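REVIEWER CHECKLIST
Item 1: Sequence provided? yes
Item 2: Single chain? yes
Item 3: Sequence as submitted:
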Amino acid sequence: LSRSGLFCYDISKKEITDLNIPFDDHVYGLDIDYDNNILYAVGRFHTVNGLPRPRGAAINLSTSGITNWTPSFSRHANKVKVHPSGILVAGTFADLGTGKAHTLTVFDCDTTEMQRYPRSTMMSDLLCMDIYSGKLYVGGSTWAQIDAFGLDRQCAAYELNNGRLYTGFAPNPSSTIQSM
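Item 4: Structure as written out by the authors:
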């Protein structure tokens, strides 16, 4: 059985399913909206199943169809997380076709329109993120500024309910954070 691109392995049946969706370049991040059965993918790709989807796509897992979500990141995206507060995307992009963003953007879960992003001016590569206890933790290369604090560090945390920097998390690693 030959597959290229995205495929699915059924753990209970111990077999590859019929799902086969080709991407023209690397996929770096995946997450599932279990309520709507949508798989979000981000990476370096430009097309998904022959459709233009610059570095971001959503796949309806019930139909295997590609949805209309097309964020059009200016550079690649590294991670995606689905959360009730929105679809969070981290990467190296500086802007979107729909508005300005700096490496971290939040999309509305229902409309998939750009909703908001933390007031950060992150000038470098965001490589990882995770959600825990109402906070979004992010890591990557050195940032020129986080919020109005002028902090220069490789990781930070944000309150998910308001997008503000969580000041109770302030480690000072000596190099790039690649995983959380």
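Item 5: Key structural point noted by reviewer: The chain is about 0% helix and 45% strand.
Item 6: Recommendation: ____
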